[in-house]
Amino acid sequence: MTSATICSYDYGQLFSGGVKLKKITFGINGDPVNNNSKMLILSDSKKYDAFGRNSRSNKRDEIVSKIISILEIYGDEDCIIVTISEREASSLEAALKAAGHPYEVTYYKDPKMMGISASQRIMIAVGVANKPSNAFDVVTTDTESSKRMLYESIHCDTWQAWSRVKDPNSEVPSIVFALGCTVEECEGLTTWGFDRSIEIAPYIERQKKRITVSCDKGLISKPQIKKCKNFDEMMKEASLHKRSKKTLKNTENLLIYNNIRRFCYKYPKILHSSEEIVKLIINRNDAYAMQKSDGSYIKFSTQVTDETIRKHLKGIITIGAYQFNQENKVKWICFDIDSHPPKNRIESEEDIRKRDEKAEYNRERMCNFLKNANIPFLLEKSGSPHSYHIWVFLRPVDGKKAKQFATIIKKESGINCEVFPKQEGIGKNSYGNLVKVPLATHQKHKTQSHIMVNGKFVREFTDLEVEVLDISGFEAPEEKTVEKKIRPEKHLVRVNGQIKTKIRPCIRNALKMQLTGDSGNFMRVAICREHYNAGVHNPEELTNLFRTQSDFSYRKTKYYIHKVLEKLLPNVKCETLRVKGGEFVNCAGCPCTEVTFLTHHIKDDFKIT
Questions:
Q1: Is the pLDDT of residue 485 over 70?
Q2: How far apart are CA 278 and CA 320, in angstroms?
Q3: Is the confidence at residue 97, as pLDDT, over 60?
Q4: Which of 6-10, 15-19, 184-188, 576-580 has the highest mean predicted lDDT (pLDDT)?
Q5: Closest CA to 85 of 108, 66, 104, 63
Q6: Which residues contact residue 16 at a Cβ distance below 8 angstroms, ignoring those fewer than 6 apart?
Q7: Cβ of 186: how many Cβ atoms within 10 Å?
Q8: Parallel, antiparallel, or unpaired for β 288-291 and 122-126?
Q9: Is 61 helix (H, G, I), strand (E, B) or coil?
Q10: Contacts with 206 (C-beta within 8 Å, 6 or more apart), sequence order
Q11: 3-state class (DSSP) for residue 264
Q12: pLDDT per position as a tens digit, 354-384
């Protein structure tokens, strides 16, 4: 018998004669075509419960909004929606239909979700395959066994369903949007192998359930799991992992992301030893820098010899390479992502954790951007914890062009990191900035750097294929000078030719921003309410207020405008705006007085067409 979800049950009991089953995995790590590596699971920061404030029924509008956003990005034809039960599926289908985006919703244990591959590559999972807590009491002899079997069943049914979107040929990336599923749940239900066990920690009031899943041997490889703080981060991570039709549309103005093949050529190069990667970095023959015991550098006006390189690789010395040669040419770009502690400030454990997580997130996002943009790179773990150098090798090119190229990559990737080259060129008798050469030993901390080879960080290798990029055909776009137009004041709203009220400056300013996250959603509600109270009752005009938002969806915006205006409420007070609106609120120039609410009949004025 074969199965990808082997539990603690003794399957030998199914055979007569006391047969002992052999434990065999197919392929490396039980994943012959390595398609788990092509899957990304995006876990949620919260759970949806069966009852209470965070129940699926109370959060239905939120869930529907997220689902519609995913469907609009990746297309109906490439998505599967699954939820906890047939009843939940019917309720969710009805809610999607009411929101103007009808779509089929299936459920865990549906026959078509078990053991059958699908053509879709996006799974929208609303919760895991939860069951009643006493579901297995009748087939077990004690509570502990019942709970263990319950979680094994949840894990089996969930993973069987999620696995439907994996590409059998391991060519197309797949994504699971695990809405209402925590990272702990995702880690547990993707852990499979021989002698699998589940440990349930004793219940402690007001604490999360702690469930530990482990396998003694034969652990099957796992997909990538990313813990997302909010839905915006989910969508960003998804776009980096798998491009969609709308992703292409939204990034059509990104010069490098979409047009790399038009002006760049790649040339493969085989590096046979660690010495060769150092020689690939060295660009100036008459000088290099050497690190001192305090971590600072001193310049040596002499040539880098083979002996210098050998000492560097052995850790006897540490050298830094000046990026520009005497002709102002460079042959690499370096993105420096680090998690160095701030100077003159004491950090808490939480501060350190957030700093490290941010560095790892930036590293992963930059690497994904370069992969999707088809830009070859070499990843180096530079030595300090959670710190990396990402190298892009170039055929010798003018420093100005390399700087423009690197700056656009940084801008389009959205990563705030240090970029080399920092200058467009150097003057006579100048050297410019330097970068520590890979495979170094830090002379102060004695930490060593490693490079990524075949998925592992190593210091030695025999054959490493890299690609050198020719960007000589790249031309940075000219900066356009936009002449400011003097526009008439728009804060006065006219209804039937008469001025009714003002839109406060803080509301007008917020409407010019990209309103993201919880604060952004709060401001959208405030903007809608203020304009309606000012006399703008046409649903089309209210919808058009938000067309400049990057995530604008006509159907979804109109749906939520209707929801906001179901209750007749006054404008949000300036004090409340400042508290809940966060960075989107600037009350400079605001009268901070409440505008009289115009009592109109919303039912007559507001109709969805």
A1: no
A2: 10
A3: yes
A4: 184-188
A5: 108
A6: none
A7: 26
A8: unpaired
A9: helix
A10: none
A11: coil
A12: 888 888 888 888 888 888 788 999 999 999 8
Amino acid at 13: Q
Each residue's pLDDT tens digit, 5-16:
666 666 666 677
Give the total residue count for the chain.
609
Residues 195-210: tens digit of each pLDDT = 888 888 887 776 777 8
Burial class (CB in 10 A: 0-12, 13-18, 19+), 108: buried
Helix (H) or strand (E) holding 401: helix 399-413
| 493 phi-psi bin (left φ>0, alpha ψ -120 to 50, beta other) | beta
**Strand order across the beta sheet in which 297-300 lies:** 297-300, 288-291, 319-322, 434-436
What is the pairing mode between strands 319-322 and 378-381? unpaired
Q: Which residues pair with 76 in a beta bridge?
A: none
Distance CA 563, CA 576 (A): 20
Task: State pTM to two decimals.
Answer: 0.50
Would you put residue 444 in left (φ > 0), alpha (ψ -120 to 50) or beta? alpha
Distance between first and last Cα of the chain? 57
Q: What is the mean pLDDT of the chain?
A: 83
Please tell me the predicted confidence (pLDDT) of residue 590: 62
Quote the CA–CA distance of 575 and 592 in Å, as a whole number. 8
